[in-house]
């Protein structure tokens, strides 16, 4: 499994694309243009149902009464809260519709000009801004280096692509690709806060099964699997997304079971997307600073204990 690499994006002038923003958070003043944040301990865990339509949110692990749990940190409210994924819908309206660029680098998404719904790396104020983090204080205090975030399956009317875009006009760094019938891992270091492009090729309800796994400093392995619920398009019902049941993942073959140790996540971190809106996106990308804080050192800086 290759490590997750935060990357910077430059926009394409030929299409409405999304400027990337991927950074590792640090305490104190954030670097200009980066989505840095610090999550305080004691933030509430709410049990109500919620459709998230705009604002900043991150999926990530949290310790809830000592239990390792994949949740969503909702920063669109004041104060911020943590939400259960089985009671949350990410509602993506038609304000997120963009055309697939007329560029072979994006042919994996679909034909040029095809309309797709995009949650961009750089925040669109009309679209909920979905990222991920490993910044719950108890999580940072107990994990040994980082976590593996794995796509285990997608149910929906179309395909899902999650990707980053290199700043040198290189190929899209695809992280998750629902056309591949395999587990797809992303390595996420401690105290990381990242946003990528999420592209949905058709409107409708999508159920995205995700697993988060980590080795703890006490030697234990912890894992949790949850379903992210997306209602894509104005005509898609939030209630339908909440009521939908994810299909059971296929049973592993006897050969795969023999080759894969129990409770071990496998797969390769596939790379993905982003495009920008003209000159404004270029200016934004130029201001982004990517800071990579690794393992224990990142944890010490985050907790203010490094000398």
From TrEMBL:
Residue stretches spanning the membrane: 272-293
Keyword Cell cycle carried by entry: no
Keyword Transmembrane helix: yes
Compositionally biased intervals (Polar residues): 38-52
Keyword list, A-Z: Membrane, Signal, Transmembrane, Transmembrane helix
InterPro entries: Surface-anchored_actinobac
Signal peptide feature range: 1-25
Disordered: annotated span: 22-54
Protein name: tRNA-dihydrouridine synthase
